[in-house]
C-alpha cells in the first residue's frame, strides 16, 4: 500500500482525551509524521471554526480546517473559505419548523466568513447538555426572537441537541421524513447522555471534505489515513485508504470493518500513527 501522505483526524473522542487534552505521545507522533514523513495533518470536526481553531494553533497545524462536519473548510489564519456547502433558506426554515413541532431545542449556525455565530430563540429548562454547550460558546451565541425569521442566505447548519433517548427518537423521525435537500449526521456521547443532530447540505460530510483536500494537495485516495470515533466520521473513514476507528467508538461502528486502535484514554491516535505511518509494529 502507498505511504500515507494525509492524516485526517476527528477532534473530540479521537485527538483529545476525555478532559480535552492532547497527550505528549500524541503530540510527538503528529509532529514526527509531519516533519519526518511529510504528512499533511487535517483536523476534521463537527465543531465550529472558533471552537477548533485553538486546537489547531496549539498543534501548529497550518492546513485548512474541516469544520461543521464538512460543510465549511477554512484557512486557520486568514479565515478564507476553501469550500462551503450552505443550507438553502427554505430548507433551514422547514427544519426549524420540524424541530418546533417536536419540541426539540434548535440552533442555527451562521457567519461562514467569520468566527461563526450560534443563534437560538430559547431552550427548554431540562436540556442540561445544551445549556453546557451554550455556556462554553457564550461569546459566539446570539439570542433572537425567532430562528425562523432570522434565517438568512448563509445558513451553515441547523442543530438539535439534547439527551440521548429523545434525540434518538428525533433522529428516526428525521430519517423517515427528511427532505432531500438536507443531510442528517449524528454524533452520540452516551456516557454524557448527549446526542447532537446536525442537519447540513447533502453535499457536506467529513468524507467529501477530506476528498476535496486530498485533490487540493494532489494526494491519491489510497494515501489518505482517517481516524475517528463517531457516526459522523463514517464517510471519512470509508473514503480513506486507511480508515482507523478508535476503541471508544460505539459497538455498531466497531462492526463496520475499520482498522481498530486503542481508545482516546489509551492514546489510540498515537498508536495508529505509529502503526500505519511509522510502521513501528
Q: Rough shape?
A: globular
The average pLDDT value, as a whole number, equals: 93
CATH architecture of the largest domain: 3-Layer(aba) Sandwich
What is Rg?
18 Å
Total beta-strand segments: 14
Beta-strand percent range: 15-25%
- How many distinct helices? 10
How many domain regions?
2
**Helix and strand succession?**
EHEHEEEHEEHEHEHEEHEHEHEH
Describe the structure.
By secondary structure, the chain is an alpha/beta fold. It has two domains: 6-84 and 204-276, 3-Layer(aba) Sandwich (Rossmann fold), CATH 3.40.50.1000; 89-200, Hypothetical Protein, Haloacid Dehalogenase-like Hydrolase, Chain: A, domain 2 (2-Layer Sandwich). The chain has ten helices and 14 strands. Strand 7, helix 4 and strand 8 form a beta-alpha-beta unit. Helix 1 (24-35) packs parallel to helix 10 (268-276). The chain is globular.
Amino acid at each position: 500500500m502507498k505511504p500515507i501522505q494525509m492524516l485526517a483526524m476527528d477532534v473530540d473522542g479521537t485527538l483529545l482525551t476525555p478532559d480535552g487534552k492532547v497527550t505528549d505521545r500524541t503530540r510527538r507522533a503528529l509532529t514526527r509524521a509531519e516533519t519526518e514523513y511529510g504528512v499533511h495533518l487535517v483536523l476534521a470536526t463537527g465543531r465550529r471554526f472558533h471552537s477548533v481553531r485553538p486546537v489547531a494553533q496549539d498543534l501548529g497545524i497550518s492546513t485548512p480546517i474541516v469544520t461543521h462536519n464538512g460543510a465549511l473548510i477554512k484557512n486557520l489564519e486568514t479565515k478564507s473559505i476553501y469550500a462551503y456547502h450552505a443550507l438553502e433558506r427554505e430548507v433551514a426554515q422547514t427544519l426549524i419548523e420540524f424541530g418546533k413541532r417536536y419540541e426539540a431545542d434548535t440552533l442555527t449556525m451562521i457567519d461562514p466568513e467569520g468566527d461563526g455565530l450560534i443563534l437560538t430563540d430559547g431552550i427548554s429548562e431540562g436540556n442540561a447538555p445544551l445549556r453546557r454547550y451554550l455556556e462554553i460558546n457564550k461569546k459566539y451565541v446570539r439570542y433572537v426572537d425567532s430562528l425562523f425569521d432570522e434565517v438568512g442566505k448563509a445558513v451553515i447548519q441547523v442543530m438539535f441537541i439534547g439527551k440521548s433517548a429523545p434525540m434518538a427518537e428525533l433522529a428516526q423521525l428525521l430519517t423517515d421524513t427528511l427532505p432531500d435537500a438536507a443531510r442528517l449526521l449524528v454524533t452520540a456521547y452516551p456516557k454524557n447522555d448527549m446526542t447532537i443532530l446536525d442537519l447540513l447540505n447533502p453535499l457536506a460530510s467529513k468524507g467529501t471534505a477530506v476528498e476535496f483536500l486530498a485533490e487540493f494537495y494532489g494526494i491519491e485516495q489510497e494515501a489518505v489515513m482517517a481516524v475517528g470515533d463517531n457516526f459522523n466520521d463514517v464517510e471519512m473513514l470509508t473514503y480513506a485508504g486507511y480508515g482507523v476507528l478508535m476503541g471508544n467508538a460505539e459497538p455498531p461502528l466497531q462492526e463496520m470493518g475499520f482498522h481498530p486502535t486503542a481508545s482516546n484514554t489509551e492514546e489510540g491516535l498515537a498508536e495508529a500513527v505509529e502503526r500505519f505511518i511509522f510502521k513501528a509494529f
